[in-house]
Amino acid sequence: MTFFARRRWIGVAVTLTTLVGVRLWAERMENRLQSSSYFTGWLLLSAIVVLAAFQLRKKLPAAPFGSAATWLQAHIYIGLGSAGLYAIHAPWRWPNGILETTLSFVYLATFASGAVGLYWTRSLPRRLSRLGSEVIYEQISAERHRIQQRAQGAILSAVRTAGATTLGEFYNARLHDYFSTRRGWSFRLWPTSELRKSLLSELTETTRYLSDDERKTAEQLFALLRERDDLDYSESLQWRLKAWLFVHIALTYPLLLAAGLHAWTAHLFDGGLP
């Protein structure tokens, strides 16, 4: 068993053992006619605070509070375990009132975004690495412009030197917009290779009517088509990671606020606060 697999099993075992212990202690309190709501509620609030503190820890790389990798592992398993704490604290029922409804919705949205992010951060980097070359997200626009300039330059050169009107007409009709504009939101949300296959197929069909000189330019276009599609695909996956992180962090602050208000009102109406 590898180190990472062993660490994963240990994390799962500790999380499940902790949840079983919390559940048994909560049942013991209920059997003794004591309310377990404060016990499980404060545990859940503490877990949320620790999870939120991970963002602060990432901004302090030299802080003596454990390595970022350790914090990440703790963040993952505490986050997964918080779902169990939530189920123990609030059994499966419809929440009462605006505050409980808001808190439940924000918690579930935050947990869901975290679960999606856990999957994406494990799977998307592998898909990006299969592209061969990695481009930093902030440099994608410049790379897109470079590919466009190379494609236009190849066509202009072919038209001047070989009178490549057939290839030039095909470029203007089918490839100019492809190289000069960004892909739409549908591709960013759900990237497919359909357009790439279609354009490559059309360009292959067009080569039947080209001269030898034009075919050399067409080969450049084949390569640039693939490079541009890979770049768009890379942008889509990297955007997904950035958008997920933005949403996940944005949900953290209303979650902390709603959880804090819930704890305060719970004690207030129970007479525990002045």
TrEMBL record:
- Superkingdom assignment: Bacteria
- Transmembrane domains' residue ranges: 36-56, 68-89, 101-120, 243-264
Transmembrane listed as a keyword: yes
Keywords (alphabetical) are: Membrane, Transmembrane, Transmembrane helix
Protein name stated in the entry = Uncharacterized protein
